[in-house]
Structure formats: C-alpha cells, structure tokens
C-alpha cells in the first residue's frame, strides 16, 4: 500500500508542476505587454544591451519549446512567444536570454551542467536496465551499478536548479532595468517564471526520491545477503 501511495505522489508532483506552469503561462499570454514588444524584440533588446550582438534570435516550432542553444549561440522562441506581445512572452524570452548571458559570463553551474549532459544521458538511458535486472534477479551489484548510473542523471537535475533560478533572476533584472515591463507587469512576469521553475524543482524532487528508494532497496538486499 505504501508503494502505491509513493508512486501516486511521484506522478502527481510533476503533473501539478505542469498544471501550474501552463495555467500561469496561459493566463499572462492574454495580458498585453505595455511595451508593445514581441518576444523576439525583447530578446534582441536585452541581448544588445549586454553586448551579445553575435547571439541570434530565431523562431522554433511547438509550444513552450523555448530554449537557448549554447552550441550555435542562438535564443530560440516558440511561435507564440516570438511574435506575441504578451507578458508571458516577455518573461520567457528574457529567461532564455538569461541563459545566453550566463554563457557569455562563463557561469559555473551552467558549465557543470553542460559537462554532465553526455554522462546524464547515458546514465538515464541505461540505469533502469541494470536496476530491473538487479531487482528481479536479486543481484545487488547489478542494482548498485544502475543506482550509480541513475545518480549521474539526478546530479544533472539538481545542478539544473541554480542554472534556471539564476536565469530567471537575470531576466527580471534586465526587463526591469531596461523598462521593458511596468511595475505591475513585473509581478506578473515573476509568476510565469516561478511557475516554470517549479517544473524543474518537481523533476529534481522526483529524481532524488527515486534514487533514495532504490538505495533503500539495495541496502535491504545487502542485509539479506549477510
């Protein structure tokens, strides 16, 4: 019964986070920005204000598919945010530019996250194979290998938190100091960014809980072997 409750909880946490971000984004997508600037214009304005003239701003398909690509030095904004003139679009565009500023300033946590990407991808893809074999076959060493691989993915999730929080902080400072948002819009933009940050917190929390659960299972198997 406890396992059922546990799995319900770890399913509900990310669902709740997704619901919050979509709700906040949808609500403030309907609020017209008083600056009259599109997300693309906001991104370009903040980039230029920070001397990042070489960073491009492009449209990318999908909804909430916005991201910064450090390999090509490109801020990519989903269609609604690229062309839209909403508070949500302004907040999201500024957040992605926040990552570009981190990149330009060699922000330490961003560098660590980039270095972890290949390890985390491999660990996330392979860990459950070893975990399942170890659990069903009763092989504690195989389970431990899976846990170690999973830990790389968990570390990536944890390191992502300061990167995202810092990008949002930089975003708010930029759009406020440049006069892109009014005083009342600052609170609205912050709500969008806080809701988005919640999805990363939820992902990290679920990853940590799962890692701890498997460690408890491994500890139990070790005791059984003694």
From TrEMBL:
Keyword Amino-acid biosynthesis: no
Alphabetical list of InterPro entries matching this protein: Zn_peptidase_2
Keywords, alphabetical: Membrane, Transmembrane, Transmembrane helix
A Pfam family this chain is assigned to: Zn_peptidase_2
TM segment ranges: 6-25, 115-137, 143-163, 197-218
Keyword Hydrolase: no
PANTHER family: MEMBRANE PROTEASE YUGP-RELATED
Protein name as it appears in the record: Zinc metallopeptidase
């Amino acid at each position: 019964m406890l396992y059922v409750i546990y799995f319900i909880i770890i399913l509900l946490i990310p669902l709740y986070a997704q619901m919050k971000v979509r709700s906040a984004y949808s609500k403030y997508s309907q609020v017209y920005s008083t600056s009259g600037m599109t997300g693309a214009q906001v991104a370009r304005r903040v980039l230029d204000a920070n001397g990042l003239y070489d960073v491009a701003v492009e449209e990318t398909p999908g909804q909430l598919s916005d991201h910064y690509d450090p390999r090509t030095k490109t801020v990519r904004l989903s269609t609604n945010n690229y062309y839209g003139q909403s508070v949500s679009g302004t907040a999201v565009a500024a957040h992605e530019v926040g990552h570009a500023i981190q990149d330009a300033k060699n922000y330490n946590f961003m560098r660590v996250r980039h270095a972890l990407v290949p390890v985390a991808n491999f660990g996330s893809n392979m860990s459950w194979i070893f975990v399942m074999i170890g659990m069903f076959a009763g092989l504690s060493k195989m389970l431990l290998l899976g846990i170690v691989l999973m830990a790389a993915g968990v570390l990536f999730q944890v390191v992502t938190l300061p990167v995202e929080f810092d990008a949002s902080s930089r975003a708010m400072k930029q759009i406020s100091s440049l006069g892109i948002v009014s005083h009342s819009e600052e609170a609205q933009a912050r709500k969008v960014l806080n809701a988005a940050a919640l999805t990363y917190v939820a992902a990290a929390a679920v990853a940590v809980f799962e890692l701890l659960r498997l460690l408890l299972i491994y500890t139990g198997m070790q005791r059984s072997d003694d």
